[in-house]
Design a protein that fits this description.
Elements (H helix, E strand, L loop, with lengths): L5 H6 L5 E7 L8 E7 L17 H14 L2 E7 L1 H7 L1 H16 L3 E5 L9 E4 L2 H4 L1 H24 L5 H4 L5 H10 L10 H11 L1
Length: 201
């Protein structure tokens, strides 16, 4: 599905509309990335797409475009330790609310994330596939997290982080069973907890 300005139009006639999205919510290792972007009010056709539908190189290219084109943007990486102590949904909501405070928009669109705000809020499923603003945020979040996981791979190459980016692939689960967990693993997530048991035996 190609994004458009329909959700921005639906939320109201505002110039500063903030799109928020996250990446890495279901991963077993690494941070969750939450990003927000406010685009210029002009309703032009943009090349932005849901980051999950694009190849790595294209995502990086478009994320750089977002950074230069956006009126304001912010990216937050919440570490595994915070996810374990607070819970994945709570840390995503907290980071999103911090971005709202930081960027000072007039209205907010999220990918079905119901944040606390006194601003007009549109929280709808698949917003990253239907809104240029949320698609821009998804590109920022995904590329920032991918880069983090590529750098993490250099520290722990035995886990293959550069390939699976911390998600629960067969390769990753097997590495957990063989090598145990790192400080970057989310110990409250079941496959990681099982790997922790292996490493303690």
């Amino acid at each position: 599905m190609t994004p458009s300005w329909s959700l921005e139009t639906q939320i109201g006639d505002f110039k500063l509309i903030l799109g928020i999205d996250e990446a890495g919510r279901g991963a077993l290792a690494g941070p969750v990335a939450v990003a927000g972007a406010i685009l210029p009010a002009e309703r032009v056709v943009l090349p932005y797409r849901d980051s999950k539908t694009l190849k790595f190189e294209r995502r990086v290219e478009l994320a750089e475009h977002v950074k230069s084109y956006a009126v304001r943007y912010a990216i937050k990486l919440v570490p595994a330790a915070d996810i374990d102590s607070t819970g994945i949904l709570k840390v995503v909501i907290r980071a999103s609310e911090e971005i709202i405070q930081e960027l000072q928009p007039e209205a907010v669109i999220t990918d079905y994330l119901k944040v606390k705000t006194g601003l007009p809020l549109l929280a709808v499923p698949k917003a990253d596939a239907n809104s240029y603003t949320v698609a821009a945020a998804s590109l920022l979040a995904k590329t920032a997290r991918d880069q983090y996981m590529i750098e993490l791979h250099e520290k722990h190459p035995e886990y293959g982080f550069a390939g699976h980016k911390g998600y629960g692939t067969q390769e990753h689960v097997q590495a957990l069973q063989k090598h145990g967990v790192t400080p970057e693993h989310r110990k409250t997530f079941a496959p990681v907890a099982q790997g922790l048991l292996f490493s303690e035996n």
